[in-house]
Amino acid sequence: MIPSAFDYEVAGSVDQAVELLGSSGEAKLLAGGHSLLPLMKLRFARPELLVDIGRLSELSYVREDGGSVAIGALTRHHDLANDPVLGSACPLVAYAAGLIGDPQVRHRGTIGGAVAHGDPASDLPAVLLALDAELVARGPGGERRIAAGEFFKDFLETDLEPQEMLTEISVPKIGSSGWSYVKFNRRAQDWAMVGAAAVVHRDNGTIVEAAIGLTNMGTTPLRASAVEQALAGAGAGAVADAAQKAGEGTHPPSDANASADYRRHLAGVIVRRAVEEALAR
Amino acid sequence: MAATEERTYVGASVPRKEDARLLTGQAQFVDDLTVPGMVWAAVVRSPYAHARIKSVDVSAAMQADGVVAAYSGSDLAQDWSGSLPCAWPVTEDLKSPNHWPLAPDKARFAGDAVAVVVARTRVQAKDAAELVEVDYEPLPAVTDVEAAAADGAPLVHDEFGTNRSYEWKLAAGEVEKVFADAEVTVKERYRQQRLIPNAMEPRGVLAVPVPANGELTLYSSTQIPHVLRTTLSGVLGMPEAKLRIVAPDVGGGFGSKVDVYAEEALCLALARKLGVPVKWTEERSEGYLATIHGRDVIQEIELAATAEGKITGVRVNLTAAMGAYLQLVTPGIPLLGAWLYCGCYEMQAYDFTCVGVFTNTTPTDAYRGAGRPEATYAIERVVDALARKVGKDPVEIRRLNFITEFPATLVSGLTVDSGDFNASLDAALERLGYEDVRAEQAARRDRGDAKQLGIGFSTYIEMCGLAPSRILSALRYGAGGWETATIRCLPTGTVQVVSGTTPHGQSHATTFSQIVADRLGVSPDDVEFLYGDTAVSTAGMDTYGSRSLAVGGVALYHAADKVIAKARQIVSHQLEVSGDDLEYEAGRFSVRGSPDRGMTVQAAALEAWTAHNLPDGMEPGLSESAVYDPPNFSWPSGCHIAVVEIDTETGDTRLIRYVAVDDVGAVINPMIVDGQVHGGVAQGVAQALYEEAVYDDDGNLVTSSMTSYLVPSAAELPSFEIGRTVTESPTNPLGVKGVGETGTIASTAAVINAVLDALSPYGVTDIDMPASPERVWRAIEGARS
């Protein structure tokens, strides 16, 4: 419960944060701290330098941006859950943010922190994957946009360079598409044992396209591609069979709470429930 | 309590006196204490479950910033006069290993203490502890209790040639004949998984020496300051009179702080050696390894019965994990349930055997309920199994077998002083609306709903109020079971109560104040409660086994008797009337027939203090002590009913209703009793559905933090529906029975019985705890295939 010694700097701007990240071999950004600090307290993470970006209030926002909603990386989960713009334009993000951790976590944790941490058991990464979100990063060479599908590389590994900082998350307005996020866990405050995000575009009772993101079914958040293919152009009657394919191509973990086989079974059930709920919306 | 006495405060939900300090951060836990010159200890722990310690090199640690000292186990070998104690050698031939505060030669569980570093700050000590180089030779380890009991298992203690610490038996009646004659028998096997107590406050120790005269004061987050004084003086080889123990505010224990821990002895020895105060605060993840665990018992239980379902006998075999060492009462814990495997049922034959087995794990010891939740779980589950076999409803089978006449001698030999099992069952059924819930269950089954309901019962009886000293002697326990209380009436009208029991969340100050307030006619606010410091409360047996009220509260009642008796003599003398002519009510004596002539206890206290006009030969002062040794255990009982909803597609199991009707005898403060029931039920539900300490094949604790060890929160639990029936205990004048453990004792069985009831259409008759979603799903799948 006592971290190793580390240096601490407060960043006054994004540029300064980027600069500070380059000033030490093992520097980490500190946003809400709800993933990083527990790892440090157990001495699983031992950064030499913490760059505190918690005071960059200019990175806390949700605003319409054409066909998208732009979310500042330091927007806290509680604010996402209660944001009116998100609530009408992309309610999936608001809903999933409201299921993260407990009220204390939601009041401290940020979307940028949760995404940049790259934990496949976190809720928002699979949601962003299903939404085909775009992530905006700033580094010494300037800004670049990364598709969510390209962002998550491995367990706790993302496409971010050591000196890059996530500044914005851009999600599409989903219009009349149905959506759902089903989270399966044993305790309300836990990470998902398995989670499924669904965004379903319908036309006259036919599923035009379904995008499904899976939480905690591999070393990164995953798309349930086999299910998506089976649903494209299908009717609601196809959902149960299609959902059976949710475990295809996944490599879920086995731990004290659930075996990999059980997670594959759960994925089938909750993908079905997520798609059914999305269709009912 | 005498029928004529008024009960103004007893029976009322008086707000807790403790809360203002706790809620405003003015409580003083050990970690809040800082004294001049204090240094910090950090303990180096074995990463191996079993390893020979080939060498320990502290030289790098000694070079680190702020380090004052660093020692291996062999460095400190001469500092101990005795091993850490096991006070309950349950058999004459018990195998009880030496248990040194730092292991000198072998580490026997992952987390065993092997070295210590002392530095000026906590962080420096922690950093330097990482620099201690220990050369281990890993040895084969065994963590499973049955594997450890088998021939050829790796030996936890080579010198014994076996991992079996003891075998203990209890039998009554014609067991062989009863089972041979039985029309029906049912035999089941249950696993009491290992649990981690998780007190809100981790342990902490501060040892303060007075080098000039050899005195030592130990501040410890403990439930047992008096026991610590006696035992640690032996470990340290110092006069008990020079050792003072202080348990300041203690943030929970659940039994895990009824122990003499390595770190307590270690900090005392270091303070003595270095001549400065030494402090250690447990980290939460460290506590998962270094603080005792609970349960970890394999149970085999068999019932003999008539074809109708009338029970005739029970046979029980336990294989109980001791862990790597015997802590204070480790071997006795499974035996605290030894008399209760008959539950609240009438039968003629009883056979109980327990084998205690060493494993390469954290030692087990008292955890809320201690032996009695295990017993209740086994008998309540096997009674349901019998009901299934003879085709009876769980309610019907219980009514058929209940003991109904009191006092009742259990087949196991102890006498239950009071109870009414049908009354609490009736009250619980009514509260639940049993028929309605059964109808809803049937409707869901008919519809084939994905979410199915199950209803589970636990009609429990509990032996608590530990304990009659003579019975403890027969059980080879190393101490008595009495308790002390002192009442000091101060000259200005307020009252001090000194208690031998010490709170760690139970509301002693409020409850005891209510008793004294009624007896002496003062306001509870005028009663101050002193405890937890052996220099203030000089004798006591401390807090465990639902004993504070049922034993300590009764001592307090008797101390009040003595105060009233002495005050009566003073008043009689001053008013010049015979003591027999004085009536006493609500703190005031009055002359029979002329009620205006009288005097309060408080006025008598002032007279006793001035001593200007006391009867000849009377000692000044109005301060009385009493020691109470209970003639019997106390016997709470009751009926708990759980309703679970199971998602049959995922196995997700949720407790949706919980009815608890308890008979805890007379109730001093209903709000506090409800709180105890709530917490206890939550803890028992946690065992049924959530918690399990898991070791991997190498003996590492896999569930090493609250991320993987699932302590449930309020979000997972329904609003409990609490009721009470009351049969006052005839054993003590307060009529009380104790409530600290009832919820935990009753609830685990109720929840698992509900799970099995929900799964009964699938033919599922067994499930391991915790009934995790995966286990439940696999049980359903297994039954379907």
Give an overview of the whole structure:
- The complex is a heterodimer of chains A (281) and B (785).
- Helix content of chain A is 32%, strand content 27%.
- With 281 residues, chain A is α+β, with helices and mostly antiparallel strands.
- In chain A, the strands form four sheets. In chain A, strands 4-5-10-6-7 form a five-stranded antiparallel β-sheet.
- In chain A, a hairpin with a 2-residue loop joins β8 (152-154) and β9 (157-158).
- In chain A, α5 (91-97) runs antiparallel to α8 (123-130).
- The radius of gyration of chain A is 19 Å and the shape is globular.
- Chain B is an alpha+beta fold.
- In chain B, α15 (548-575) packs across α16 (601-610).
- Chain B is globular.
- Chain A binds chain B through residues 1-2, 4-5, 42, 102, 184, 186-190, 193, 255-259, 262, 265-266, 269-270, and chain B through 122-123, 126-127, 283-285, 649-650, 652, 690, 692, 694, 702-703, 705, 707-708, 710, 712-713, 715-716, 772-774, 777-778.
